[in-house]
Design goal:
single chain, alpha/beta, five-stranded parallel β-sheet, 8 strands, about 50% helix, about 220 residues
C-alpha cells in the first residue's frame, strides 16, 4: 500500500506510522528522518537543507521534495510506503502526484488522524522530558513519574521543552491549519481520505486505522 499520514501536532502520527508500517510491511518515511539522513550523509540536498536551517530559514519545498523523491526511489519503497510529514502543503502534494504519475503508480489512501484542538494542547503542553535522555518522556496527567520532576529511568530532571509551551503549541496548530490542513481537501477531491479518531490507546487507534484502511482498500 502507498499511504500518506496526516494530522495535527500531538495526534500521534510518529507512533502510529511505526505500528502501521510494521503491520503493512512497508517502510515508514518521515520528513525528520529524511533531513537527518541527508544531513548526516552530506548529500547535496542535505548540505542545502543545513545551510537554510543554520541560517534560521525554512527549507524550501524543492529541497524537501528532492529528498522525498530520492527516498521513494529506493528499492524497499517500490512495493509501498507510508509517508509521515510529507507532503505538508498543496505544492508538495502536487509534486508527489506528479512523481507517482511519472512512475505509473498512485496513492492508495490518505489517513487523517483527527484530534480535538484542546486535546492536542493538553497532550503536548503536559509533556515532560528527561534532561539526561530525551527518549524518557512523561506527562503531568497520563504518565506521571513516581517522584514529581524526576525521571523514573535514570533519576534525571524532568522539564518542559520550550516548544512544548502552550503558546508555542497553539502557534504550531495555526501553522498546521494554514499550511497542511488544506491538503486534506486536496486529497478529498481524489476520494483518498479516510478520517479516524486518534483518541484512545495506541493499540485502539492502530486497530481503528487498520480497519479503515482495509475498508478503503476493499472499496
Amino acid at each position: 500500500m502507498r499511504i500518506v499520514l496526516v494530522g495535527p501536532p500531538g495526534a500521534g502520527k510518529g507512533t502510529q506510522a511505526a505500528y502501521l508500517a510494521k503491520n503493512l510491511s512497508i517502510p515508514h518515511i518521515s520528513t525528520g528522518d529524511l533531513f537527518r539522513a541527508n544531513i548526516s550523509q552530506g548529500t547535496d540536498l542535505g548540505k542545502q537543507a543545513k545551510a537554510y536551517m543554520d541560517a534560521g530559514d525554512l527549507v524550501p519545498d524543492e529541497v524537501t521534495i528532492g529528498m522525498a523523491e530520492d527516498r521513494l526511489d529506493q528499492p524497499d519503497a517500490v512495493g509501498g510506503f507510508l509517508l509521515d510529514g510529507f507532503p505538508r502543503n498543496d505544492f508538495q502534494a502536487q509534486a508527489l502526484d506528479a512523481y507517482l504519475a511519472a512512475h505509473g503508480i498512485a496513492l492508495d489512501g490518505v489517513l487523517d488522524l483527527e484530534v480535538p484542538e484542546g486535546e492536542v494542547v493538553k497532550r503536548i503542553a503536559g509533556r515532560r522530558v528527561c534532561r539526561n535522555d530525551s527518549a524518557h518522556v512523561f506527562h503531568v496527567e497520563n504518565k506521571q513519574p513516581k517522584v514529581p520532576g524526576v525521571c523514573d529511568v535514570c533519576g534525571g530532571e524532568l522539564y518542559q521543552r520550550s516548544d512544548d509551551a502552550e503558546d508555542k503549541v497553539r502557534n504550531r496548530l495555526d501553522v498546521y491549519h494554514r499550511e497542511t490542513e488544506p491538503i486534506i481537501d486536496y486529497y478529498k477531491q481524489q476520494n483518498l481520505v479516510v478520517t479516524i479518531s486518534a483518541l484512545g490507546t495506541v493499540a485502539e487507534v492502530t486497530e481503528r486505522a487498520m480497519e479503515a484502511l482495509r475498508r478503503d482498500d476493499a472499496a
